[in-house]
Amino acid sequence: MPPQSSALIQGDAPPTSIERAFTKPVKSDPQRAKEKAAVQRLLDGIDIPEKSSSRLPSGKSRTKAQAANVVESLRERVEHRRELRRARRAVRKAFGVDTRPSARKRAALMMGLGAMTLGSVAATGSSRNVDRPAIVAPVLIDATTQRVHAMEISASEAFKQALIEEEGVRQTVYRDVAGYPTVGIGHLVLPEDGLRVGDTIAYDQVLDFLEGDLDKAEDAVRRLVGDLPLYQHEFDALLDLVYNVGEGNVSQHKSPRLNAAINAGDYESIADELHYHHAAGKKAKGLEIRSERRSSMFEQASYENPRDA
Predict the structure, then answer these.
(1) Complete domains list, the chain, with CATH
(2) 83-126: per-residue pLDDT in tens?
(3) How many CB atoms lie within 10 A of CB 154?
(4) pLDDT tens-digit readout, 124-139
(5) Is 28 helix (H, G, I), strand (E, B) or coil?
(6) pTM for the whole thing?
(7) Do 241 and 294 form a contact (C-beta atoms < 8 A)?
């Protein structure tokens, strides 16, 4: 029986179809090197970022349908990256190729690798099952049913939908109610963005800004609450607050009562401190409605838009 690649015996997951395809005889170094080079050329040839086919109409949109469209685009991006990671792991295990961490088309990868290894698979016959150690699945904590550490929570799909409804989607840089240049889904334009009022960005850039801003806001919430456990909806409400007003405005200096409530573990008082109604020194109706929605999110796990009532 031909020896099997030791790379396929290692790991903690069942073998994928790609891995099973690489169960093959030991090859000479020149042949192995040639095969590695071919795989690397394949990877280089499909080094193409994933682009969303979705497009948004011009102007500002707060509709549920538009928000759902953006959320679906984000979900597709996440799934695409997950599939690429699986494909890269299979290539590294089989060939020891160091794949570069950029987006690649998984379908093209599978077809290319399948064609390259068809001969070796046919020569060895059907692949044999490899004995693997038993896998113990991690215990997943459901933050919708019990409070958990903020490090274990990230933005929910329901929150993303609500956030996009509140912020709207703008592909042209504009000034928000406080006068700051803004674009996308409430993205504050930074000097490194190289944008000014009136400039237009692509839909994929809207998604890039949103993902980056959500990551920063999630980290800010974790710093804000420390070890205080939260439900998913409580985390989402605080996330909306930070995304809306910025981390600086929820600091001990700017929001002492909010921080005191967090330090005391007083959830009712935290809910009382989620209302921010002013921008540039003036009360804004939109911020009042958003604060009402945020409070309902924290206290009642309701993500509904008060404007629809």
Answers:
(1) 6-124 (no CATH), 150-308 (1.10.530.40)
(2) 877 777 776 777 665 555 444 444 554 545 555 444 444 444 44
(3) 17
(4) 444 444 454 554 445 5
(5) coil
(6) 0.67
(7) yes
